[in-house]
Amino acid sequence: MGTVPDEELAGYKVETDLTKSLAHKPDAVVIANPTALHLDIAIPSAEAGCHLLLEKPISNDLNRIADLQSSIQRGGGKVLVGFQFRFHPGLQKLKTLLEDKTVGEPVSFRAHWGEFLPDWHPWEDYRQGYSARSDLGGGVILTLCHPFDYLRWLFGEVAGVWGISAKRSKFVMDVEDTAEIGIAFKSGLIGSVHLDYIQRPARHQLEIIGTEGTLFWDNADGIARYFQAGKNEWQEYPPQPGFNRNLLFIEEMKHFMEIVQRDLEPCCTLEDGIKSLEIAIAVKSSANSKKYVQF
Description:
Blueprint (H helix, E strand, L loop, with lengths): L17 H5 L5 E4 L6 H10 L3 E5 L9 H11 L3 E4 L6 H11 L6 E9 L25 H4 L2 H10 L2 E9 L11 E8 L4 E7 L6 E8 L2 E6 L5 E5 L5 E4 L8 H17 L7 H20 L3 E2 L1
Parallel strand pairs: 1-2, 2-3, 4-7
Antiparallel strand pairs: 4-8, 5-6, 5-12, 6-7, 8-9, 9-10, 10-11
């Protein structure tokens, strides 16, 4: 069931069959169904020449990624992967501060994201949602994979990962709800990511320790902060007045429209989506084998 009332679709052509939908020759397709079903829509849509806005993670495994790549090559469309945090002004500011060496060379990082699953979509039964079901590609490692993307975006390629996961809540589901993850980057940077479906109040933050200070971003207020050694005070860069979470999706959609209409290159490509999925799969593999996974 969708969350858009039927009356808001009045006047729009509605199809419930993919073949009939693609027969209308759309320029673009937004793929936001459950994770494990993404490629069922993405591959034929790419084959038909459509541009794709493909939600994260791009799939729940790597089995048909080559098929998707081949379909895109034949169809000629472009893919934007839906990692909307790339459009967050606070994280964009952190990227600029890193590039400017504001706190020297990054040494380590800590990303923390905990959020109570039933609060995500209170109008739905969380037990039926894809986030809580292994058959639909759920679990915190896949569902909360945003840090894997924005950390790559900030720091470059990953050298290896380890992961520990567990189900610690009383939620009725067959996936992990808690994970502790270590990531080593090819640059030598090391750090950790915490993910859970349990924490109240929600907390999503990123701290980066540099040789000459500290960077910090908090999703709660959107502010990017930095502390430079020797100055003994924090500097803050708040987002624009009126900023809210929905603006990330609006900016993402504006970018997608430019891809479709102006042949712009995606800021988050299919290759980026594949890399993030590879990290998530490696974390799950490490949690199962209890071994460090090297890329």
